[in-house]
Amino acid sequence: MDNAGIAATYLRDRGLTGSFRHGLVLGSGLSAVAELVKDPITVAYRDIPGFPRSNVTGHAGQLIAGRIEGFPALVMSGRSHYYESGNIAAMRMPLELFAALGVDNLLLTSSAGSVNRDIAPGQLCIVRDHINMTGLNPLIGEPGDERFVPMNAAYGAKLRARLKRAATEASMRVSEGVYMFFPGPTFETPAEVKAAKVLGADLVGMSVVPEVVIARRFGMETAAVSVVTNYAAGLDAVFPGHEETKRMASDRALAFRRLFTHFFKGLGDVM
Ligand code: HPA
């Protein structure tokens, strides 16, 4: 059995039975979003065989299983990033585990810097598409034809439409934009931010993209919502920093909860 299979067996023994169709990945400062989960079973990453641990402050390091608005859901509170290990496939095992436990809809959250003056710090932004020009891809080295994943509809129109409807129902202004992946851990230079803008980006960030690639490889529908924690370097005089990122993200955790509450409530009509 592979690592994900071993971990799935371990979690089944810990009471995670049945199929969890919905998965949620929570980024820095967003662990309070997990309070959406009713009747939670919480398992620390360190207790799950083979599970990667994040060493980033602001990440809880817990897998939470339960129900969101009645729908069985799995939540990763804390994620691994490329910049922690140099492994672009660091999220492969957790997402393969999600697939093994039944997840076919994956919602990713993250913080991001805004390259677009119309998308201000504090706003939530639905990712419409991404740009990855880093040369990194978590499927490099993967054998077989399944590595040739089309990315046309990586951020599926259906899930995005449901998120937008949830935002309307929650009376929230949520924008939509293109996310450009940077490997970090340094923030971008002002020149890189200018280049990102010219290329069509609205957001810059250090996560999401490798996860979407892996999740698409496993056949999941994916969507991502970023909280803009700052204007990207050079748009204003402020230097981005991790403390501010965490603070702004945790200030907006309640907004994510409202958005996702309406999102899951809306699923009742269609699933
Ligand atoms: N750049 C990259 N990642 C980020 C930023 C940023 O400005 N803010 C939050 N995450």
Q: Tell me the structural class.
A: alpha/beta
> What is the mean predicted local confidence, pLDDT?
94
Number of strands: 9
Alpha-carbon distance between the two ends: 32 Å
Radius of gyration: 17 Å
Total number of helices: 8
What is the makeup of the main sheet?
5 strands, mixed, barrel
CATH superfamily: Nucleoside phosphorylase domain
Characterization of this structure:
- The protein is an alpha/beta fold and 271 residues long.
- It has one domain (3-269): Nucleoside phosphorylase domain (Rossmann fold), CATH 3.40.50.1580.
- The chain has helices at residues 3-13, 82-85, 92-100, 157-169, 190-199, 209-217, 242-251, 253-267; strands at residues 22-26, 38-44, 62-68, 71-77, 105-114, 124-131, 174-181, 203-205, 221-231.
- Strands 5-8-7-6-9 form a five-stranded mixed β-barrel, surrounded by four helices.
- Strand 6 (124-131), helix 4 and strand 7 (174-181) form a beta-alpha-beta unit.
- Helix 1 crosses helix 3 and helix 4 packs across helix 8 (253-267).
- The two termini are 32 Å apart.
- 46% of the residues are buried.
- The mean pLDDT is 94.
- The structure holds hypoxanthine.
